[in-house]
Amino acid sequence: MIRDLSKTCKTARREGLSSRLFLIIARSRKKGGESSMAEVKASMGGTVWKVLVKPGDVVEAGQDVVILESMKMEIPVTAESGGKVVEVCKGEGEFVQEEETLVRLEP
User: Fold this and answer.
1) Which top-level group of life is the source organism from (predicted)?
2) Which positions of the chain have pLDDT values less than 70?
3) Which of 21, 24, 53, 87 supports an S-S bond with 41, CB 3.0-4.6 Å?
């Protein structure tokens, strides 16, 4: 997990994103190592200002899915990979901690 996080930070910096605002994607694994679901996670603590997707929506890589508000700034959280929204884990107005799951996607 630490190596994946480090790789994500480097990717975010390479693409010109602040390392504090990068998107963390964690893959849950089925037995045998097969990828089953992607989780879009908060890169920092804040309040969910707006949820832009609902279960059943199909999102593309790079699409904004949630907007966080922190320190009077709006911070868009984008999906790193495309897929179908299975679950929206946090609603508008809820506070989230760093690395807390916001949305679950299936490929």
Assistant:
1) Bacteria
2) 1-35
3) 24
- The CATH number assigned to the domain holding 28 equals 2.40.50.100
Chain position carrying tokens 């790079």: 62
Tokens of 5: 């996080």
Cβ neighbours for 100, distance < 8 A, ≥ 6 positions apart: 41, 42, 89, 90
Rg of the Cα trace of the chain?
A: 13
Comparing CA positions, the residue from 91, 79, 87 lying closest to residue 104 is 87
Q: Give the total number of structural domains in the chain.
A: 1
Identify whether the C-beta of residue 47 lies closer than 8 Å to the C-beta of residue 69.
Answer: yes
pLDDT of 14 reads 53
Distance between alpha carbon 76 and the CA centroid of its chain, in Å?
Answer: 10
